[in-house]
Amino acid sequence: MTTLSSLNSSTVSPSGGTISPAAFGTYESPMPGDSHSGHSEPAITDNDETELHFVSWNQDYSCFAAGTSRGFRVYNCDPFKETFRRDLKSGGFGIVEMLFRCNILALVGAKANTQYPPNKVIIWDDHQSRCIGEFSFRSEVRAVKLRRDCIVVVLEHKIYVYNFMDLKLLHQIETVANPRGLCCLSHQLSTSVLACPGLRRGQVRVEHFGLNMTKLIKAHDSQIACLTLTIDGLLLATASTRGTLIRLFNTIDGTQLQEVRRGVDRADICSIALSPNVQWLVVSSDKGTIHVYSLRVRVVGEDASADAAVRTPTLLCQNSSSSLDALISPSTGANPGSSLSFMKGVLPKYFSSEWSFAQFHLPECTQYIAAFGSQNTIITAGTDGSFYRCSFDPVNGGEMVQQEYVRFLKTESRPR
């Protein structure tokens, strides 16, 4: 067994050597009770008061994972169904991260887990029902992010980036105190970008590993509360702990491209997501309203999701540094602005902000993560075990229409 020390703060143990590229297969795992599951422990039902600790989307929002007090579960979004679950008697998981739709997951135990403590990351092959690698740290793991070529482990003050094939340490990044475990990655193989809090309040650090370049962006005056990247990592959306403004930046030169307003009252932003075609942005907060915004960022090429490779970093950098007009489309009036915007030089800044294009109202007592489904739909997963699908009118906006509601787990608990 190989052991690697990272400044005496972490230990990495590949179980059985390297992780073969063949391990990244797409498959549907069986349910407990199937002879393939590999578990001798009995399945535990929701009647045993299973608590929900954690929910997160996979990289293309086609699935989400739920960490529970009994193990973990994976759900398909369209159509909605439970794909598989793993129930354990030893305790549950506080973090469950998927790698697209393949059989490799990253697991971090909940505080009550007697087998996997919260300072250890388990790389789990669900096809073989076994651990194929693990990382141990001196402090609690705040988040884990996956790409096909790397594993990113987020601690409160440091981020480690490891090679997925041999689990060797590639990069270390120091951050300001980051209890939320904020970090996001690009997922296009041709670009390798990581965004995380910097060393100063309100600062975002963007690592373009493929270009060997670091960009520091002063995104907000307050601490960063939420951030996300486009699939190619060339655009960054951020929100602060004030929760009133969401800003969009070019990650190559740090230029602010657009600013939209969630509201005027302080809110805790739970999630930000950008649509694959970079036309829309969705934001959820503890206020119980899902907001959708129309983006004015120009995309080079007719279909960014199908041919994102045409949006090269060089082209984007040249466009944005020469003129913002190359990146920002003329305002179409899609996002409502203030009728007093002609006085924006005199009145407070929020009068000329761009407000949301479409909205959906949910119970205010629950935290939701929101993302884009197919054909102008928004999907949300809540910490009360609820799943919603709603649609928005891409021309007129306004109140969204609920299409589906599922209670995937009966619980009254809240994630930490």
What would you say about this model in short?
This protein is mostly beta strands. The chain has one helix at 313-322; strands spanning 4-5, 10-14, 52-57, 63-68, 71-77, 80-87, 93-98, 104-109, 120-125, 130-137, 143-146, 150-154, 158-163, 169-174, 184-185, 193-197, 203-208, 213-218, 224-229, 235-240, 245-250, 256-261, 269-274, 280-285, 289-294, 358-361, 368-372, 377-382, 386-391, 398-399, 401-407. A hairpin with a 5-residue loop joins strand 3 (52-57) and strand 4 (63-68).
Characterize the structure shown.
This protein is mostly beta strands and 416 residues long. It has a domain at 49-141. The chain is 2% helix and 41% strand. It is built from 1 helix and 31 strands. It has one helix spanning 313-322, and strands at residues 4-5, 10-14, 52-57, 63-68, 71-77, 80-87, 93-98, 104-109, 120-125, 130-137, 143-146, 150-154, 158-163, 169-174, 184-185, 193-197, 203-208, 213-218, 224-229, 235-240, 245-250, 256-261, 269-274, 280-285, 289-294, 358-361, 368-372, 377-382, 386-391, 398-399, 401-407. The strands form 7 sheets. It has a 6-stranded antiparallel sheet with strand order 1-2-10-9-8-7, with no helix packed on it. The chain is globular. Residues 1-15 have a biased composition (Low complexity). Keywords: Repeat, WD repeat. Belongs to the WD repeat PROPPIN family.
* Helix count, DSSP H or I runs of 4 or more residues: 1
Stretches where pLDDT falls below 50 for ≥5 residues? 1-9, 14-45, 300-333, 338-352
| Largest beta-sheet characterization | 6 strands, antiparallel
Numbering strands along the chain, what is their spatial order in the largest sheet?
A: 1-2-10-9-8-7
* Strand percent estimate: 35-45%
Helix/sheet category: mainly beta
Rounded to an integer in angstroms, the radius of gyration calculated over CA atoms is 21 Å
Question: Helix amount, in percent?
Answer: under 10%
Mean pLDDT metric: 77
CA-to-CA gap between the ends? 34 Å
Number of strands: 31
Q: What is the overall shape? A: globular
